[in-house]
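question for whoever is on the cluster today: can someone run the full assembly for these? three chains, 932 residues total. i dont have access anymore since they changed the login thing
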Amino acid sequence: MRRRPRVASRIFLALIYLFLYAPIFIMIVFSFNASKSRSVWSGFTLDWYTELFSDSMIISSLTTTIGVSVLAAIVATIAGTFAAIGFFNMRKRWRSPLLAINNIPVMNADIVTGVSLCLLFVSLGSVLKYQLGFGTLLIAHITFNIPYVILSVLPKLRQMDRNLVDAAMDLGCTWFQAFYKVIIPEIMPGIINGMMIAFTMSIDDFVISYFTAGSKVQTLSMAIYAMTRKRVSPKINAVSTLLFLFILLLLIIINVRQIRQEEREKKLRTLKSK
Amino acid sequence: MKLKYLSAPYIVWMALFVVAPVIIVVVYAFTSAAGEFTFDNFAKMGGYVSVFSRSFLLAIISTAICIIIGYPVAYILSKERARQQRILIMLIMLPMWMNFLLRTYAWMSILENTGLLNRLLTLLGLPAVNIINTPTAIVIGMVYNFLPFMILPIYSVIVKIDRSLIEAAQDLGANAVTVFRRVIFPLSLPGVFSGITMVFVPAVSTFVISQLLGGGANMLLGDLIEMQFLGAAYNPHLGSAIALVMMVIVMICMWLMNKFGAGGEEAVML
Amino acid sequence: MAKELIRLRDCTMVFDDDVVLNKINLSIKDNEFLTLLGPSGCGKTTTLRIIGGFVKPTSGDVFFNGVRINDVPPHKRTVNTVFQKYALFPHLDVYENIAFGLRINRHEGRRLSKDEIHSRVMEMLEIVSLKGFEHRDVTSLSGGQQQRVAIARALVNRPKVLLLDEPLGALDLRLRKDMQIELKRIQEATGITFVYVTHDQEEALSMSDTVVVMDGGVIQQIGTPEDIYNEPVNAFVADFIGESNIVDGIMIEDGVVEIFGKKFACLDAGFAPNEPVDVVIRPEDVDIVDIKDGMLTGTVTNVTFKGVHYDVIVDFKGFKWLIQTTDYCPVNSRIGIKIDPDGIHVMHKSQYSGMFGDYSSYSAEYEEISDAELGPEETVSEDKLYEA
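^ ran it for u. tokens below:
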């Protein structure tokens, strides 16, 4: 007999959601504002959306963001999946310390990760004659993405029946066939989940990029940060609204698919039980 | 070929880009610009006691507010029907997908003296308030940005509490309040500890929130570090020393979480 | 005659259009050990949860000592439960788990003092033989020990009724046997009414005063273990309790039933003349005799050594019987059988007729059953068989 929440808790929840969504709502509303003011409404316009595409600074920072996020997510997913399988097959004595090191970028304050990578790149750079730029930005993103992929893949490996690989080899699979016909399909949900997390972590990152990108390239977050020092153009509101809607759409698609799949499974189960 | 060797490339990567940077920070923290071993950098921190205490104070207040608000939210959510729960949790996470700087910037337009909040207050005939560029504004920004990190781990621990434990407590004579106080709350503490870590660490190290909402006057640890690397007061040795202190704080938090915590990992995964 | 403690009247339970319980009527007496027995999904756990107060019946009433308690929440009922997987509080040690109910409730109108709580917990630890375990972490205990903590945690509150939901399900066979004896001992020592849910018929028969056999949300039979075993009301009960051969028969008159065209003497009466009936014959009630002395003759198709006896599958005109005997008969041998009148039990036809009791589908237990090679046309030695 689970009691339904009462009115008071409903109101409380509503206030919390209002608190969480008010700034986002305001931001979206002001992306349609005719003037540059961020608090006075002076009429509806789509100008900011059209101007957006002719602003080379915004477009270039957007392409940098998407470029680095996609590349970092792909590399991190591949490397992280291999690393997770490797860790999983290690003795605990080795696995535990390696996982502890793996957790450093997850647990550490972003600014510490950013600063320490910055120091590394600067020290190496002076030796290798290489400056901060897209390369170091990408390395930094891969570094903080891989741990999330590993943390997402490892539980799937633990759920996997340990005998599956042995069974596959017993049935005549080579080592490599066992790997891509048995292990990979089994842990695929974890891999995809890890990639999603990596991608969004990259898109959302500001602090680590800020310390590792140098002065020649900038991500969207960095561009926004530079502008907040003076005045943020409503074009940024427009860009963010578009990104937000894109991610929202992605999430809805993923969730609807998941719910449909669960319902199908439920139906199958009830059919079987009858 | 053994499967464990698949992790070899990443182990090399970790050595280069996770372990080496930490070592460099330690080296910088204990050396002077001339490259000599010194404790000077730590001694210099004495001049920034006010920054340290402000950072800790604001982070602790924000964490406390996050618990006070976040715990009831997590608890109420866990009591909703499964389908609603899923949507409501999604809605808790959704704001995190909006650019963090822009969300904070939006608070500027709400809180500033001629901003939306004061316009609303005057409309209602109330006196205007001065929040922007005060510690209050920073706390609002921190709570706003980090509240989901408190709600999610607590929620994920509460929903996993076995229904039969609650029934067992009822069966033994516990009413709703006692069930909460004696069973649900103690069992949800691991989630609270994870939440504390996940809110406190970013709150104590932020520099964006303090710069946007706190003005120049309310410098925090994050600002101090940032200044030493990219700002006017260029001194990576002092910056590294402060970063090292922060790492120690994180290590203490990690230790606490390992000891009492759970659910943090899943919350990150959400 | 002990007085009635709990009564369920016309209790019906519907979950998402599924009728889980259909108009259950049940009376539980004081000091009774009552077992709800049935296959999974038969409604036995739901019945228990209605008594515990965790669910309300969709319709019907629950009475405790004559008072309707439908709307009394679980924490106000003088009933305690031992849960299926124990549901011990992982954040409390053994002592605190047992003391839980004592600490939060008033007992006899007042809070218990620390000393009283201590002495009652220690007394309980003694009863369940867990002395010295009080400060152990419950998660570090074995299944059997956790089980005993769960029992102690419930009993320490001195409930009027203890509800046990398949409490031995997670234990291995040996431990289960020991705990059965232990539970019966505790029940007799405390005099508390036990309502016990299980799907294990042997457990039900060996522990209970009263067995309630359920299937499909309906009570099939209520009775003592002996009644249930010896006088099952229908094919379902006969099949679920012990092994049984269930064959079609015709009740010629009181005391005479016809099976496979042969008349047999029996003790049953009160059926309509020539009424079609189900006949139950327990495997141990069949005597194997020389073929010329047999009331029926058949071919042995399978023999399995079971230790105390052999399980012999015998084919009678395509219908396979299970017979338990201490005499070895080789496969393919022809044998005769003899059944005493008290070995035959006649039941009215029911919805379960024809569903059970044929051992040609016995392959779950017997790896292979070869079909009997069809012997020469059964030439049964006359109706002299039916005498006695």
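summary bc i know u wont read the tokens: Chain A has a mean pLDDT of 87. The two ends of chain A are 27 Å apart (CA to CA).
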